[in-house]
């Protein structure tokens, strides 16, 4: 098999030579040129497995080359060599389609990893197993098809992606797919809920610590960046990062290196950062609770996951798959009556796909003979407390003939639901008080996950 080839564009002879030697030792055949015109000529005649370009060139800019390659040779990964600390140039290049950047003076360890990632992108084009995204991130609506196509493209880049969208829309699922479809798939995907780590433990959790660096540090501990080495770190609920951690994270992204607590040296890290929050991060930047510079760096590319009510046509497919999964392969899979399906189709789903899953799980428990009636969905009572569009929710409830006389029936199921909610609310409020409003401790006390607690707080309108 012929060697993969690389094109290096830098006007400094020393750097060209250094890159040439390093890449040649990695088994690449290297062409090294010193300006834009020569680079264009090479690109017109040969296919490259990788391009590395300097930012400032005598007859133009590296940015111009990045744009040209993204447009005319989209299969060729191009990385920008930036001046130390010039993240603005790196972000601009990533936005234009560069797959990564490396800053000067070039750290050879980081460069080697970058090259390996680029070569893997080539391998993935040559028949590595293809992930069927449509069977994981379900939905045939135009919005979901676009989301899946965007995810496929983002998987090829190393740029930080910020995934926005309401709670339960599938942000984590999207992040997993970006990881699984990309060159980092064989390394770890490490999701971390930034709201669930106590502020004082955060630095040690992220960066690790050395034995004896603080009371209780009985042994060396690897941080999450180390665990995710070569893979992806997914910062869920990134808005919950305290300001002191935001500063530290910014440095890591810039330097591509971490320093464990008590450690003397910085350790290079090769981790792609994906982040998400259901909060409006831009608004948090505006009121100074989230650093603008960090926002700018984690949000190089934004992927917006649409709310379920904006793609109602996906509800029947999602409902069918959830029922299938909950039935666990048994033949006695519960069925929705047409009225129940109509009620779901008209419902607003403030908690999105996660809420749909919860509704169906509860309906399976409530229904008789494996037939889910509209009343088993309990949409009306739930919607009156949570749906932003109460009219829509009421119309959903009216699809169910059984619910029509519920108002006159004080023993009816809606009242049972409210009674249960009341108990839930009291129990959660008591646990919150006892845990001094620490949500992680509250969730532990209640024996539920942090996410489940957050969902219930939202559902019950507890602030
Ligand atoms: N398009 C989809 N197809 C199949 N399942 C989905 C889809 N979207 C979401 N889900 C499911 O809904 C649930 C919630 O998804 P996920 O945790 O990815 O949402 P999220 O946006 O990260 O939520 P949060 O903001 O609360 O962290 C999961 O069980 C996930 O598998």
UniProtKB/TrEMBL annotation:
InterPro entries: AAA+_ATPase, AAA_lid_NorR, CheY-like_superfamily, Homeodomain-like_sf, HTH_Fis, P-loop_NTPase, Sig_transdc_resp-reg_receiver, Sigma_54_int
PROSITE patterns hit by this protein: RESPONSE_REGULATORY (PS50110), SIGMA54_INTERACT_2 (PS00676), SIGMA54_INTERACT_3 (PS00688), SIGMA54_INTERACT_4 (PS50045)
The keyword Translocase is annotated on this UniProt entry: no
Residue segments, region Disordered: 384-415
Pfam families, per database record: AAA_lid_14, HTH_8, Response_reg, Sigma54_activat
Keywords: ATP-binding, DNA-binding, Nucleotide-binding, Phosphoprotein, Transcription, Transcription regulation
Domain Response regulatory per the UniProt entry, residue ranges: 5-119
Start and end residues of each Sigma-54 factor interaction domain: 137-365
Any single GO BP term: regulation of DNA-templated transcription
GO MF annotation terms: ATP binding; sequence-specific DNA binding
Compositional bias per record (Polar residues), positions renumbered to this chain: 384-397
4-aspartylphosphate sites (modified residues): 54
Residue ranges with Acidic residues bias: 400-409
Keyword Transcription regulation: yes
Name the record gives this protein: Sigma-54-dependent Fis family transcriptional regulator
């Amino acid at each position: 098999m012929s060697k993969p080839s690389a094109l290096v564009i830098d006007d400094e002879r020393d750097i060209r030579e250094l890159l040439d030697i390093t890449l040649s030792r990695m088994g690449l055949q290297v062409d090294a040129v010193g300006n834009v015109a020569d680079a264009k000529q090479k690109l017109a005649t040969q296919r490259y497995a990788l391009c590395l370009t300097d930012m400032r060139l005598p007859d133009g800019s590296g940015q111009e080359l990045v744009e040209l390659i993204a447009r005319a040779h989209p299969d060729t990964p191009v990385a920008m060599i930036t001046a130390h600390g010039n993240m603005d140039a790196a972000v601009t290049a990533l936005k234009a389609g560069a797959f990564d950047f490396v800053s000067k003076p070039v750290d050879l360890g980081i460069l080697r990893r970058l090259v390996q990632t680029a070569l893997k992108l080539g391998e993935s084009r040559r028949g590595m197993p293809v992930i069927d995204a449509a069977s994981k991130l379900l939905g045939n609506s135009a919005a979901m098809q676009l989301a899946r196509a965007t995810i496929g493209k983002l998987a090829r880049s190393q740029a930080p992606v910020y995934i926005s969208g309401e709670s339960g829309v599938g942000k984590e699922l999207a992040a997993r797919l970006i990881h699984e479809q990309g060159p980092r798939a064989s390394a770890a995907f490490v999701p971390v809920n930034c709201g669930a780590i106590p502020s004082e433990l955060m630095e040690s959790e992220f960066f690790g610590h050395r034995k004896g660096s603080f009371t209780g540090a009985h042994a060396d501990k690897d941080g999450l960046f180390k665990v995710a080495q070569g893979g992806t770190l997914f910062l869920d609920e990134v808005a919950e990062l305290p300001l002191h951690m935001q500063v530290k994270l910014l440095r890591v992204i810039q330097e591509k290196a971490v320093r464990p607590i008590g450690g003397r040296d910085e350790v290079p890290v090769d981790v792609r950062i994906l982040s998400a929050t259901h909060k409006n991060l831009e608004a948090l930047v505006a009121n100074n609770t989230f650093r603008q510079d960090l926002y700018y760096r984690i949000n190089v590319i934004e992927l917006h996951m649409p709310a379920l009510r904006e793609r109602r046509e996906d509800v029947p497919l999602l409902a069918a798959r959830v029922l299938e999964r909950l039935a666990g392969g048994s033949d006695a899979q519960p069925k929705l009556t047409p009225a129940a399906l109509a009620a779901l189709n008209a419902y607003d789903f403030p908690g999105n796909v996660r809420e749909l899953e919860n509704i169906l799980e509860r309906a399976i428990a409530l229904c008789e003979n494996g037939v889910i009636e509209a009343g088993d969905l309990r949409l009306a009572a739930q919607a009156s407390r949570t749906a932003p569009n109460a009219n829509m929710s009421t119309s959903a409830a009216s699809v169910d003939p059984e619910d029509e006389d519920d108002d006159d029936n004080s023993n009816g199921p809606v009242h049972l639901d409210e009674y249960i909610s009341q108990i839930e609310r009291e129990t959660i409020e008591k646990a919150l008080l006892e845990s001094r409003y620490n949500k992680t401790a509250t969730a532990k006390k209640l024996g539920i996950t942090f996410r489940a607690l957050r969902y219930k707080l939202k559902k019950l309108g507890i602030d």
